[in-house]
Design goal:
The structure is a single chain. The protein is mainly α. β3 (229-232) and β4 (238-241) form a beta hairpin. It contains eleven helices and four strands; from the N terminus they run αβαααβααααααββα. It has a two-stranded antiparallel sheet with strand order 1-2. 27% of the residues are buried. It starts with 15 loop residues before the first helix and ends with a helix. α2 (41-50) runs antiparallel to α3 (58-64) and α6 packs across α7 (149-164). Helix content is 42%, strand content 6%.
Length: 255
């Protein structure tokens, strides 16, 4: 038999022929799920469908029916259970090895929540002014809006300053969360959605994806600056402005 590449769960009690049989059986190989930074619960559902592990919507249903709240101190059940997808933002982006022979949909949820706890718990006690939910919601916006540690810290400073000053966030990423085609139309800009931060003040009701630790830390430790506006050019450069007039000039120049 040809031995296969991959990860297999072998037992110490196995004989050599049993091991060879297992290493030659594609159905016994562990499935590898990679959740990239910023992916949503709907994206993860689609990945599991593509891997042949679930039918479409099964992961989403499992998230909606989640009832392990008491195991995780960072989950605010009162706030999260009101959301359409309660665990959005808390399924930590990483590579997970799944048992494809005995796969249970909830395995992914608990693996990702355990990982979130491991990454976030050293910092959780440092939260003072903001709740965990506010930080993770902001981190998910930063994750989608901007790349690079320093830019994320500066944009975090701009976002919190806007919120604290009663300005609107004006973040396209929050509106895109409600869309399936990744395009914003003129009608979308006036949409009566709580995720429309161009129209409504404050943070959206919850995270818009699952952020990396870098974005979480940027949300926790924002960098103060004189800027109130930013944009990302087509080649990924971030351009900042202090006034709306400067920002409009930047838009005309770069977009």
């Amino acid at each position: 038999d040809d031995l296969l590449r991959g990860r297999f769960a072998l037992k110490k009690s196995m004989t050599v022929p049993e091991m060879i049989a297992m290493l030659s059986d594609p159905s016994k190989a562990e499935a590898i799920l990679t959740i990239q930074e910023g992916l949503t619960i709907r994206d993860i559902d689609q990945k599991l469908v593509d891997m042949g592990l679930i039918n479409s919507g099964e992961f989403i249903t499992e998230v909606k029916n989640f009832n392990g709240w008491e195991y995780y101190s960072f989950l605010d059940k009162g706030t999260l259970s009101k959301l359409d997808l309660p665990l959005e933002g808390y399924l930590y982006p990483d590579t997970y090895f799944l048992d494809s022979t005995d796969f249970q949909v909830h395995d992914v949820i608990y693996l990702a929540l355990d990982n979130f706890e491991k990454k976030f718990s050293p910092y959780q006690k440092e939260l003072k002014r903001r709740s965990v939910h506010e930080i993770i919601t902001m981190a998910s916006i930063i994750e989608r809006e901007i790349f690079g540690k320093e830019n994320r810290e500066i944009v975090s400073g701009i976002m919190w300053k806007r919120l604290d000053s009663g300005w609107k966030l004006d973040a396209d990423a929050t509106l895109l969360y409600t869309k399936t085609d990744n395009k914003i139309t003129a009608a979308d800009l006036n949409a009566d959605s709580s995720y429309n931060t161009r129209r409504f003040g404050g943070l959206p009701p919850g995270p818009i994806g699952n952020p990396s630790l870098e974005s979480i830390l940027a949300a926790m430790y924002p960098k103060e600056s004189a800027y109130w506006f930013y944009l990302t050019t087509k080649d990924g450069k971030v351009v900042y402005a202090r006034t709306n007039e400067d920002h409009n000039e930047n838009k005309a120049k770069y977009l």
